[in-house]
Specification:
single chain, 262 residues, mainly alpha, four-stranded mixed β-sheet, binds glutathione
Amino acid sequence: MPTVYHIPVCPFSQRLEILLALKGKRDAVEFRVVDITRPRPRRLLDLTRGTTALPVLVTEDGRVIKESLVILRYLEDVLPNPPVAQREPYRRAVESMLTLMEGAFGAQGYRYVMNQDVNRRDELHEGMLAEYARLDEFLREHATSEPFLFEQFGWAEVVFTPLFMRFWFLEYYEGFELPRDARFDRVRMWRDACILHPAADQVTREQIVKLYYDYAKGAGNGALLPGRRRSSFVFEPDWRERPWPPSDKYGRTATDEELGLA
Ligand SMILES: N[C@@H](CCC(=O)N[C@@H](CS)C(=O)NCC(=O)O)C(=O)O
């Protein structure tokens, strides 16, 4: 059985979980959890030759595959039924064009949440809207039905849904909402349907908001903020037992005690 090393709330890992859920094959892969707040185990670093980004997949015969989109394609190839990616060449090309937009979309959202300069808020807000507008235009041009790109929740939805869910942190920490404007109607329909799909139930809004508090204060990947002893990404105490963090990210940093981490 292939093994995936992953950080449970990582959007890139969630893509793999959604794909497997759509195929009804969640048990075809063994998931091993990695704690991002602790130094990476030597054995895992040897396997990845020193890189730390997850997920990585280790095949049954010990070969290593990195990058979520590449791992997705591998799983689609080794577990072809039911297919999630399009098979017809033109439809696959459309899906691939949309998939290629995930990098800029994700990077903009993470830049926005991690920003600590109050004077850059408007620019980042506009930048995020521009990304949603690009998706909207793409869907209007290429979608063959509603609400998804094609008839069913498929490859592009697997790729984007985890990012739509992470961007709950923009609503909470930046007050970001898609304006009620025709420019965003199609992408809003897509986003909302993606989030509600039963194959994408691995994380909740509350979990995202609580775990990504440190990102909202500018510290990514389990890094510690000054004055803090514990990252908001720790597994214990469980996020369900912690209070909601303050949403005013430009104010002072909450303590470990206030975040329920002590
Ligand atoms: N492009 C990569 C991104 C993976 C990534 O950035 N993963 C984050 C977690 S969400 C990570 O592993 N961060 C820890 C690190 O890079 O050391 C992919 O799609 O797999």
